[in-house]
Amino acid sequence: MRRLAFMALLLCLAASLAATAWFGRAVWQDARDNAAIRDLAAGRDAIPAASADPRATHARILFLAWRDRLPEAQDRLPLLVGAPPELLSEASYAIGNARMRAGFQQIEAGNFENAETEISLAKTAYRDALRAVPGFRDGKVNLDLAMRLVRDLPRPLADGESDPLAQPRRLWTDLPGLPRGAP
Amino acid sequence: MKWLALALLPLPALAQPVVTADNPHGYGWWLGDELVQRVTIALPPGVTVDPASLPRPRAVDYWLDLRAVEAEQADTGLHLTLRWQNFYSALEPSWREVPAQPIRLSDGTVAELPGFGFVTSPLRPLTAPSTADQLQPDPRFRLIDPMPARAGLGLSLAALILSGLGLAWHQAWGPFRARPARPFTRAARAMARLPDRRLLHRALDAAFGRVLIGADLPQFLAARPEFRPLADRLAAFFAASDAAFFGQHAHPDTAEAQALARDLARIERGRR
Fold first, then answer.
1. Per the record, which residues fall in region Disordered (chain A) (predicted)?
2. From CA B174, how far away is CA B176, in angstroms rounded?
3. Smallest CA–CA separation between A35 and chain B, in Å?
4. Is position A165 within any domain?
């Protein structure tokens, strides 16, 4: 009986020691990742550790997207695959927003070809955001906006037909065709 | 007899399975919404659906994705859950048709997963400007909630302190050094400094509850069976003490008494 009590106490001690170490590490990691997220939110670049929480990766993608470092942001998206879908959705949405801002700049400059490319990429990013979370309303609104600028077209007409005259005209576009400003 | 020959011709398997569909509601859908269609295929016994013929998750059309197909085999047939996603950016409420999908059964028949239609509506007014200031803002940064890990750390620290205290109490360590319920442990520690046999006698008295003499040893071992492995050495200890007390042997072996006290202490604390 006493032997059993001694063994049980030793076991409890070992288990609680292991739990303390594990949770201590978790507390430290949370503090480290939150510090990185606060830095990124304040506009200071911080590179989260490889083992960082997905929210730190999310923060870094938001930071990179806002600064138009899109290839870097895009490269980090796969890190969010196993994470809660909201994070992947918001990260894709932030990339979409960056593409849209670039698209609007191109429209201002009158480069409609480049604008169309940027807005098509934005549409892909917004679609990815909605695939991750179908109810993401900000993503819906911005995708609708992008779709009004560059309308989706039925596929069978867009490919297969070699005759350029048979290609459908791009209807329903809101892309401004004329320079603005005073005459 | 011709009619008989015709009647005896093997009939092709014509049993069409009954397909019932629980389609999404026809109205009230927006860009990006997920539409869940549940289809039940009642199958004749022994017939299964060819898994390769189930529709694959894919972009079915430029405005329609099939996100996921979940198949669940039940006694009555196959339950299919098809998750569609609408990407049609409507300028006005618009009727969209989701196409039917063919599937093949193991007996060679082809059944059809029914299509359905729905009305998708625009999110923004038709006249809303498409300018940069209409963009919804970037998402917020999300901080990690530190409370779960902190609570876990607090609880495991409490468990660590409690089990440490429990072990110290059980082993008569630190603040529990002078615990009355560990007489042999106290005696062994005292004898390490002062090798006096009487200390062990007092400890045996305390463990027995009254004065223990050599003749009472079987009674003590019956009450505390865990000390039975040391019965011979206890008997020898009492014999040596009696001999010393009655003057037959002036200097009994104190080293053996110390060793005995240590072994009794080990048993007392569950170490042996």
1. 157-183
2. 5
3. 9
4. no
> Which residues 121-150 of chain A have a CB within 8 Å of chain B?
127, 130-131, 134-136, 138-145, 147-149
**Structural domain that includes position B199:** 178-268
Residue B132 lies in a domain: no
| Interface touch A93/B139, C-beta < 8 Å | yes
SS3 B77: strand
With respect to residue B8, please indicate whether it lies within any of the assigned structural domains.
no
pLDDT tens, per residue, chain B with 272 residues: 455 444 444 444 456 788 999 999 999 999 999 999 999 999 888 888 888 999 999 999 999 999 999 999 888 789 999 999 999 999 999 999 999 999 998 888 888 999 999 999 999 998 988 889 999 999 999 999 999 999 999 999 999 999 999 999 999 999 998 888 899 999 999 999 988 888 999 999 999 999 999 899 999 999 999 999 999 999 999 998 888 888 776 677 888 999 999 999 999 998 88
**What ipTM, to 2 d.p.?**
0.78
Q: Is residue B160 part of a domain?
A: no
Flag whether B45 is in a domain: yes
Number of domains in chain A: 1
Q: Is A130 within 8 Å of B32 (Cβ atoms)? A: yes
Domain that holds residue A109: 32-149
pTM over 0.80: no
Which of B120, B136, B157 is the last residue before a domain boundary? B120
Q: How far is B269 from chain A (nearest CA, A)?
A: 7
> A13-25 burial string, b = 16+ CB within 10 Å, else e?
beebeebbeebee
How many independent structural domains does chain B possess?
2
Interchain contact A61–B (C-beta under 8 A) = no
